[in-house]
Amino acid sequence: MPEQEPMAPPHPPPIAPPIPLRRPDAPKPNPAVVPGGPAFARQQATHDADPLSQASPVRSPFTPTQPVQSGAALIGRRPQIERAIAAVETERAHVAIFGERGHGKTSLANIVAGLAEDAGYGVVRHACSAGGSFSDLIAAIVGKIPARYLHRVGADAQEEAKPDHPPEWNVDTATMALQRIQFGQVLIFVDEFDRLAAPNARRDMAELLKNCSDLGLRASFVLIGVAESLGDLLALHQSIHRNLVAIPMPLLTDADLSLLLTQGCERLGLRLEWEAEKLLLQLSHQSPFTAQQLGLHATAITQRRHATVVTAADVSAAARLVLEETRPVFAALLDPLPLDRRSPDGTIWDDLLYEAARAPCDGFGWFIAKDVNLPKCEDDLRTLTRPDSGPLLRVRRAAGRTEFGFARANLRNYLLLRGAERNGVI
Ligand SMILES: Nc1ncnc2c1ncn2[C@@H]1O[C@H](COP(=O)(O)OP(=O)(O)OP(=O)(O)O)[C@@H](O)[C@H]1O
Ligand SMILES: [Mg+2]
């Protein structure tokens, strides 16, 4: 059958290029330092050294395993970009970007860091390792501050002063090291901040942020981490609230995901059939990561057929592939559970989980029992919050009602795929 050209649904216009940061009193570039700063240099180096970047003629615009690197590829985050810019530029505040895994925190940070570098800010980037201490973090950061932003030792000195390295950093020595930043403004991005698990590490960090603000240092921090709230990310004392701008990262809207998918297809010279797009949106359930994952596989399947239209059958095949690839991730959690049996209320848990995964939720994945398309399921949902169920769900009271959420990152999307297969949707 020839592929028909159905009417394309309307799409929101692409986001306008973000407002650039104004140039602060940036120091004159030091020829010894790569223009654009070390993060740019690192990106450049990895790109040049990557044999795949030369070998593959067309790289897919769908990149489920990598955060977004360019503003054009970051969909729907204009309010967050603008908030971050205003925080740093106008308010000289620190920023905390937090949310669930895969919601695009690092992607947002990449774009803000790029804009900051273009505007002449010094940019330092660091990702915390599991169990890292405050001292480890500061040692890494101090070592990465571009020399041209630092205080010079003396008029005759050719070398810029690198801060001393005490064997163990504390809040005072870290503050002194950041006081050595005398030119321009340095933005310090700390990704995976939630991994900083050593006792007092987050309290020390809060102290350091406060010192930077109180002393008017030329350093601002952007903390990025998996957390439900700002309080979960950082041990806050009251007075830090004034100096810290919180940027929560919700799920994307369907309109944004639609743009992400059609834009990606267009870049590959493919057209996304309306039924295929509907299925992609349904299975992605507002997750940028899942949309990227399904987009990557569906378009590869279309290309292997030598076709130019991505069909619902391509999306189904991609979904089954992702389901198989993801099965081992959740096997230990799901396999021991009697998901095919009826609960005392007569509900088959597999059905309940599928309906719960399909339920409309807020930007952070919370939903209420009433929105699950099964009658009287609240008790069964509660049962799934018990530790002997995994737990598969978590529960909380918010705004006077009981809300449920999935207990693991990407579990919602996995259950959607699993349920879609069981119900013959894919
Ligand atoms: N706004 C967006 N537009 C397009 N793709 C996005 C967007 N946000 C996230 N993605 C994609 O989703 C995936 C996850 O993004 P990213 O790594 O930035 O998330 P994260 O929140 O930092 O995840 P983690 O908590 O695991 O570190 C990547 O493939 C990225 O390309
Ligand atoms: Mg990340």
Account of the protein in words:
This protein has 426 residues and is of the alpha/beta class. The chain folds into 3 domains: 37-42 and 67-248, Rossmann fold (3-Layer(aba) Sandwich); 254-334, Orthogonal Bundle (Helicase, Ruva Protein, domain 3); 349-422, Orthogonal Bundle (Arc Repressor Mutant, subunit A). Helix content is 41%, strand content 11%. It has 15 helices and 9 strands. Strands 2-3-4-1-5 form a 5-stranded parallel β-sheet, with helices on both faces. A two-stranded parallel ribbon has the order 6-7. Strands 8-9 form a two-stranded antiparallel sheet. Strand 3 (186-191), helix 7 and strand 4 form a beta-alpha-beta unit. Helix 3 (78-89) crosses helix 4, helix 6 (171-179) packs parallel to helix 7 (201-214) and helix 13 crosses helix 15 (411-422). The longest helix has 23 residues, at 312-334. The protein is globular, with a radius of gyration of 24 Å. The two termini are 20 Å apart. Residues 1-20, 22-56 and 155-160 have low confidence and may be disordered. The structure holds adenosine-5'-triphosphate and magnesium ion (MG).
Considering the chains and any ligands shown, give keywords for the structure.
binds adenosine-5'-triphosphate; binds magnesium ion; Helicase, Ruva Protein, domain 3; Rossmann fold; 426 residues; five-stranded parallel beta sheet; single chain; disordered N terminus; 3 domains; 11% strand; two-stranded parallel sheet; Arc Repressor Mutant, subunit A; alpha/beta; globular
